[in-house]
Write a structure and sequence with these properties.
Strand content: 5-15%
Strand order of the largest sheet: 1-3-2-4-5
Largest sheet: 5 strands, mixed
Number of strands: 5
Number of domains: 2
Oligomer: single chain
CATH architecture of the largest domain: 3-Layer(aba) Sandwich
Shape: globular
Length: 415
């Protein structure tokens, strides 16, 4: 497994975060032998480790599908192409779905209103998402200005993979996710917030995200539950994940077809609807709920009056939602509603989902919503009397200001 939490190629400031302790993956059989030796009092074990941190050139494959009526808006469809061992499920199955959906859309390119950009990343594991991170850094302006959504594809069609309800979806895309599962698989959808994993390199830019490991094992598969994106709601990705046993036999053709249909439905709406298929009130609701939790925890946040600003923002957001619904009902574009929806996502998502914001990348660690306010650096140390609370208070005040700046940008977006 990968021990580093540094996201993508490290900056100078990241170098100190690279791990320096060798880590060994041990199979159950080898672990049993080690336990036997320990029981006999044999406690000497030698680890022979070779650390390789050389820079390498990684391939990234990019293709763009245009149509006669497409403009500058883009939908990004992505998945990693590198795999552990044979990688039939992770990630050849996902690559196959990407190609199949893109091919189906190409046959109907005359109906496309937005371009589809398909990217196959390298550096997913050993470089910790270096391919998608490089793409975010190198194509920042295009991503910021034109990409309406990022749809990620990872580890599809696994045998027994029946847990789909809690796949990730940005709040504004959760309704689209529910529609895709209902139409493509006749299944309900609850959704989960985007996580800090799996080439989710565009959250800081504010790009809404939909799906990743869409189908996982049922919750009863507790042995590999930690391999899932949301371990509390699924049994993970199967015992064969990241092992030499990830072969074709571990795929279920009917499950793979089901997953492909779900992706096809979601992408069809994203590239063909007259306006973006967003529900912005859901985004504002998630922001407001996280803010309330922060207010309950920290006095400096509760005194900031941020919630009042959010409440005042709600009618404007609802008006944009209404304009989007009307445009879809009459099948006519509404460029102003699209523009406001896009600006609102760029305003709120970076501070809701990341610490680093639009120009950096958080570490590959669990990140709560509104991390500046709900997980300020130093809070756990201060709770153990290792840091003066006043240092945390300074950090929180700056987090309040960053959150206020996001709300002000949202006000301008809907005003």
């Amino acid at each position: 497994m990968i021990a580093s939490s540094v996201w993508g190629s490290p900056t100078v400031g990241d170098l100190a975060q690279l791990p320096r302790v060798p880590i060994v993956s041990v199979t159950a059989a080898d672990g049993a032998l080690l336990r036997e030796r320990l029981a006999r009092g044999d406690t000497d074990v030698m680890i022979d480790a070779a650390v390789d941190t050389r820079w390498r050139t990684l391939p990234v494959l990019e293709a763009t599908l245009d149509g006669p009526a497409t403009g500058e808006e883009l939908v990004l469809l992505s998945g990693h192409v590198d795999s552990w061992h044979l990688g039939a499920m992770d990630n050849a199955s996902a690559n196959a779905v990407m190609v199949a959906v893109a091919e189906a859309l190409a046959r109907r390119r005359g109906r496309l209103r937005r371009r589809l950009r398909v990217c196959f990343w390298s550096g997913h594991s050993h470089a910790r998402y270096a391919g998608s991170t490089w793409y975010a850094d190198t194509n920042w302006e295009t991503l910021h200005d034109h990409v309406i959504a990022h749809v990620n594809v990872d580890s599809l069609g696994g045998a027994g993979a029946s847990a789909l309800a809690h796949a990730i979806a940005s709040d504004e895309l959760r309704g689209l996710g529910a529609h895709a599962l209902r139409v493509g698989a006749a299944l309900p959808f609850v959704g989960s917030p985007p996580v800090r994993a799996g080439d989710q390199s565009f959250l800081g830019i504010g790009v809404p995200s939909l799906f990743m490991t869409l189908s996982e094992q049922p919750p009863s598969d507790v042995g590999v539950r930690p391999t899932g994106v949301v371990p509390s709601t699924s049994g993970g990705l199967g015992w064969w994940w990241h092992t030499p046993e990830d072969k074709l036999a571990r795929l279920d053709p009917s499950a793979l077809e089901r997953d492909a249909r779900v992706y096809g439905v979601a992408l069809w709406r994203l590239v063909t609807e007259p306006v973006v298929p967003f529900e912005l009130s859901a985004l504002l609701g998630a922001f407001s709920a996280a803010l309330r939790r922060a207010e309950e925890r920290w006095e400096v946040v509760s005194e900031s009056a941020l919630s009042a600003r959010i409440a005042a923002l709600r009618p404007g957001v609802q008006a944009v939602d209404s304009a989007l619904v009307h445009a879809r009902s009459v099948s006519l574009p509404d460029q102003e509603a699209d523009r406001r929806a896009h600006a609102l996502c760029r305003a709120l998502n970076p501070v809701l989902r990341t610490r680093a914001g639009p120009f950096g990348h958080d570490r590959a660690l669990p990140t709560p919503e509104l991390p500046d306010l709900l997980d300020p650096p130093g809070a756990s140390e201060a709770a153990r009397d290792r840091v003066d609370w006043r240092h945390v208070d300074v950090t929180l005040r700056r987090g309040v200001n960053r959150t206020l700046a996001a709300i002000r940008a949202a006000e301008q977006a809907v005003g």
